[in-house]
Amino acid sequence: MSGIYIHIPFCKQACHYCDFHFSTSMKKKNEMVLALAKEIQMRKNELLDCARSDKDELIETIYFGGGTPSRLQIEDLRLLMDSIYENYTVCDTPEITLEANPDDLTEEYLVALKQLGINRLSIGIQSFYEEDLKMMNRAHNAAEAKKCLELATQYFDNISLDLIYGIPGMSNEKWLQNIETALGFGIPHISSYALTVEPKTALNKLIKNGKIDEPKDEVASEHFMLLVETLERNGFVHYELSNFGKPDYFSKNNSAYWLGKKYIGIGPSAHSYDGISRSWNIANNSLYIKSILENQLPNETEKLSVEDRYNEYIMTGLRTIWGVSLDRIQNEFGQDYLDYLVKQSQKFLNDELLFIENDILRPTSKGKFLTDGIASDLFILN
Fold first, then answer.
1. Is the pLDDT of residue 55 over 80?
2. Which of 101, 194, 206, 324 has CA 20 to 30 A from 239's CA?
3. Longest Cα pair distance anywhere in the chain, in angstroms?
4. Mean pLDDT in the chain?
5. Confidence tier at 47 by pLDDT (50, 70, 90)
6. Do residues 267 and 247 make contact, with C-beta atoms less than 8 angstroms apart?
7. What's phi and psi for 215, nearest 5 deg?
8. What's the CA gap between 253 and 89, in Å, rounded?
């Protein structure tokens, strides 16, 4: 089973914290949609090649990400869906996700999305408080955040929403209210991330100019623990560091990334993985369109070394409930890698940040918030 990710590089406005590839101009929208459809067609044999058989791999997940895919009209999305179904073998019950912003989700648009075959929404709420949304320069307001969920839950069962914690000035009480508001809508999946300051963002500039306080790690850590406790108490499974789902509502698309499955990334800046190598498209809309029109794939490829694959497995494994299998380390990478991992893990085992159970290495409750830092200490450096 494999997946297809389509990057839609358009947003209504630039969020202060975002460093993803996008444009606020829609001038090239029609050209971009045609280029995306053409890239889908150009790469139709890629999964067949890596399947190493005369039978192509089934597509299990289709994910429209961005940017803001809900900036596209229904006919744009239909063209892309048609291109996928014409060129790939899609399983009978695929998970088809569309990332959306609350201000785009009118009732008419929701009905049309469902008729198109979209069966999962990922909605960028971020906060239910007006002051937070303004600070982040979100395109929607608090009323739109709640209104869109009232509408969306009438038409979709499988909904995920994003929330951001560690926002400067956000008290524990306020953060808990954000979580409780989300739970009040019966949402079965929540993705939640700490507010991080990326180098080339407006947020970084605002902090340097003293207009916004810098996020504090200790605040983010408290918010994270409150999030985990509250959601687990309400029947959610903390199946990945930033993701919580009710049983049967884990994101199949994201789980595929963490479990090392193959996927094709379509569009400017999109990444692909075939089990052996990674490739990524150019992060420039005009150059992307130009290359596709000239029947050239505007991408670079990197063949992953054994060390790269080991490091990636450590990173993704520790972030998930599936953990890092010591048997897999030995079988796939060899005894030397297993010895190295056990040796490097010892201090974290002693500090009760990691534990081993049934030959699976996982972070403890105390270690979860520190997972990325712990993983980097277990990496093998080339």
1. no
2. 101
3. 60
4. 94
5. confident
6. no
7. -60, 140
8. 17
**Could you tell me the CA-to-CA distances from 64 to 28, 86, 331 in Å, in that order?**
18, 17, 35
C-beta separation of 62 from 3 below 8 A: yes
Task: Name the token pair of 176.
Answer: 């808990």
pLDDT, tens digit (0-9, with 9 covering 90-100), for 90-147: 999 999 999 999 999 999 999 999 999 999 999 999 999 999 999 989 999 999 999 9
CA-to-CA distance for 11 and 309, rounded, in angstroms? 34
SS3 letters for the chain?
A: CEEEEEEECECCCCCCCCCCCCECCCCCHHHHHHHHHHHHHHCCCHHHHHHCCCCCCCEEEEEEEECCHHHCCHHHHHHHHHHHHHHCCEEEEEEEEEEECHHHCCHHHHHHHHHHCCCEEEEEEECCCHHHHHHHCCCCCHHHHHHHHHHHHHHCCCEEEEEEECCCCCCHHHHHHHHHHHHHCCCCEEEEEECCCCCCCHHHHHHHCCCCCCCCHHHHHHHHHHHHHHHHHCCCEEEECCEEECCCCCCHHHHHHHCCCCEEEECCCCEEECCCEEEEECCCHHHHHHHHHCCCCCEEEEECCHHHHHHHHHHHHHHECCCEEHHHHHHHHCHHHHHHHHHHHHHHHHCCCEEEECCEEEECCCCHHHHHHHHHHHCCCC
Distances (CA, A) of 234 to 227, 244, 355, 377, 379: 11, 11, 25, 33, 35
* 140-197 pLDDT per residue, tens: 999 999 999 999 999 999 999 999 999 999 999 999 999 999 999 999 999 999 998 8
Mean pLDDT of 72-79: 98
**What does the pLDDT average to over 199-212?**
86
Contact between 79 and 37 under an 8 Å Cβ cutoff? The reply is: yes
Q: How far apart are CA 342 and CA 115, in angstroms?
A: 51
Q: What is the pLDDT of residues 315-345, one digit of tens each?
A: 999 999 999 999 999 999 999 999 999 999 9
**What mean pLDDT comes out for the span 277-305?**
97
Spatial distance between the Cα atoms of 24 and 14, rounded to a whole number of angstroms: 7
How far is residue 341's CA from residue 354's CA, in Å, rounded to a whole number?
Answer: 12
pLDDT at 1 over 90: no
